[in-house]
Amino acid sequence: MAYNIDEIRSFFPVLKKEVYNKPLIYFDSAASSQKPFQVLKKEEELHNDHYGNIHRGAHFMADKATQEFEDVREQVRAFINAASRREIIFTKGTTESINLVASSFCERFVKAGDEIIVSEMEHHANIVPWQLAAGRKGAKIVKLPFNDLGVLEIEKLPSLINEKTKLIAVAHVSNVLGTINPVKEIIELAHQSKVAVLVDGAQASPHISIDVQELDADFYVFSAHKMYGPNGVGILYGKEKWLEEMPPYQGGGEMISEVSFEGTTFNELPYKFEAGTPHISGVIAFGAALGLMNKIGLENMAAWEHSLLVYATQKLKEIEGMKIYGEAPRKSGVISFNIEGIHSYDLGMLLDKMGIALRTGHLCADTVMAHYGIQGCVRISFGIYNTKDEIDVFMAALNKVKMMF
Ligand code: PMP
């Protein structure tokens, strides 16, 4: 499918909306993307036709829902080219996926005195779970820094890795700086010392084609709600060799084989890590989002978003007092900035009144804010439906706000 922006926009009913009597310009897809009708329809279809609790095999409805749920597992497997569907675990989001690995991996493989390397540009979701798990074990968190351009200083990585290092946690794409990190290189380095790597793909999976086998990632995590799918659905990819060894994260229905008061045996992968009733309708509807992304094509989406990034960056740089955070040579469609003399919160609030939805504040990345010595910033982020015309409207609004100060 050639990139037909009008057709793509027509998939998203919400884009016709007005806020404060202004056409909505949605520049906050990095926080959560909007949902196309295909996803909304799929969820409705399930509820109107064949909803039932899955994996119970009790009746027609349950069987049909189970089949669709498991079909999406296969779709996810193919989307990231995992070797087996046993390696695809449904969670409620990237945050839960990371907590699962931090808790379970550390319980099994980390002991007092061990070290976990975490990059300085991580979302809080890829820092705090490691701190909690390391704290329980008496292990230490070691920082992998980035430079002022927003590029990880991976030349420092060999000196940070030692025999105590057990895992490296790093984002594929930074949610603040937009930097596309060289995760393949990091994984190669880590594996030379038998260190595992968890890649936080929350900001990469909506934009970049992912091949977990090619990357050789040990764990790769992401959220459906940033990929035009429903919220409340996350994915944990883990290599079977790790997942087999790791203890369950939560106990409950579905994750067991047999239960008695003498002891419990656990279900096989991936169910060992899927306790309780999952977000059935969310997972099934996510299949429609993946279908749409495949149809449009990841390469086409990336090229479109890159052209928006280049255009907006160039326009923003013309503004006096503009400071952009993150100028890495490989960057995704995220631009964080401040304008001298204007508080980011004021800027965001005034732009919102002009119909522009964007994000302000610390962006769940206090360590990035600390790096630049700021409290917060403004972030615009692009999805497949954004246009250069919207950037022009945004720029005019920004200039108007600037005149007010
Ligand atoms: N990591 C990154 C890089 C993110 O951008 C986000 C979402 N802002 C998360 C993790 C957390 O994702 P979720 O809230 O879907 O669990």
TrEMBL record:
GO biological process: cysteine metabolic process
Keyword Transferase belongs to the record: yes
Primary enzyme class: transferase
Cofactor: pyridoxal 5'-phosphate
Entry GO MF terms: cysteine desulfurase activity; pyridoxal phosphate binding
Domain of life of the organism encoding this protein: Bacteria
Record has Transferase as a keyword: yes
SUPFAM superfamilies in UniProt: PLP-dependent transferases (SSF53383)
EC number: 2.8.1.7
Aminotransferase class V domain: residues covered: 25-394
Chain's role: Catalyzes the removal of elemental sulfur and selenium atoms from L-cysteine, L-cystine, L-selenocysteine, and L-selenocystine to produce L-alanine.
Family indicated by similarity: Belongs to the class-V pyridoxal-phosphate-dependent aminotransferase family. Csd subfamily.
Protein name, UniProt field: Probable cysteine desulfurase
Species assigned in the record: Maribellus luteus
